[in-house]
Specification:
Largest sheet: 4 strands, antiparallel
Structural class: alpha+beta
CATH architecture of the largest domain: Alpha-Beta Barrel
CATH topology of the largest domain: N-terminal domain of MutM-like DNA repair proteins
Number of helices: 7
Mean pLDDT: 97
CATH class of the largest domain: Alpha Beta
């Protein structure tokens, strides 16, 4: 599933290509990717309006309309956006298409149809319904706030990082990356971490997410000490110490780690 760096990349793409333009037509090829409205209702909601600014909370992206209301974009497992003019450039699986007055089109592409678009009339109510915690890159989530969130949580550290109701935006891939850089074993009980551990974890959380975003989530553009480029490599070795990477089940997910750099407590 796209995580915070992916969705932040989509947000920047939408900012650069899809804002401040009148939407003349909304075409829905598969109604399963429209939520909380029918395809006709979504078209009525958007046509004649402009998307003016964006807001992201964790893995959820929202675009404000020029009048009232928002458009929610959730990318499921395989979703992304494509902006184009030539019909020959239209992507496969573009299940919703916004046609702009300037002749360009913005397609919501989702091969597995697990993402969706939805009208949102009350953003605060929607965020409350989604039960999203503070965004992992929110400036208010400083080291002290991070430690406060950890208080009283008796779960494995990887589970906590992936709990969207606590900190929004981190999934399986980037929780592994953050824990690797922090030198913490994924199944470590959160109460076993002291303040120094939590401060280190907080610092690497910010660094990893920002670095992945700045690389536009392209594995080949990430630093040489990142695990992301090695996730699908057989017999991959730790980019730091050369130890063969290992896998362990944590929170129902397969977690990749280095047994030397992230020793079992």
């Amino acid at each position: 599933m796209p995580e915070l760096p992916d969705v932040e990349t989509f947000r920047r793409y939408l900012d650069a290509n899809g804002l401040h333009q009148t939407i003349e037509e909304v075409a829905v090829a598969d109604e399963r990717v429209v939520k909380r409205a029918s395809p006709a209702e979504l078209a009525d909601y958007l046509q004649g309006h402009r998307l003016e600014r964006t807001y992201r909370r964790g893995k959820h992206l929202f675009a404000a309309l020029d009048g009232e209301g928002w458009l929610e974009l959730h990318f499921g497992m395989t979703g992304y956006l494509a902006y184009y003019r030539d019909p020959g450039e239209a992507p496969d699986y573009g299940h919703v298409r916004l046609a702009y007055a300037n002749g360009y089109q913005l397609a919501f592409v989702d091969r597995r149809k697990l993402g969706y678009l939805a009208p949102v009339r009350d953003l605060a109510a929607c965020l409350a319904e989604l039960e999203l915690g503070i965004d992992a890159l929110d400036p208010e989530l400083d080291a002290a706030a991070f430690r406060e969130l950890a208080k009283g949580r008796r779960v494995q550290v990887k589970c906590w990082l992936m709990d969207q109701a606590s900190i929004a935006g981190i999934g399986n891939v980037y929780s592994d990356e953050i824990l690797f850089h922090a030198g913490i074993y994924p199944r470590t009980p959160l109460p076993d971490l002291d303040w120094a551990d939590l401060d280190r974890l907080h610092g690497y959380m910010s660094n990893v997410l920002k670095t992945a975003t700045d690389s536009q989530v392209q594995p080949g553009a990430m630093p040489g000490d990142f695990l992301v480029p090695l996730r699908k490599v057989d017999d991959a070795a730790c980019p730091r110490c050369g130890t063969p990477l290992a896998k362990v089940k944590a929170c129902g997910r397969t977690s990749q780690y280095c047994p030397t750099c992230q020793p079992t407590p």
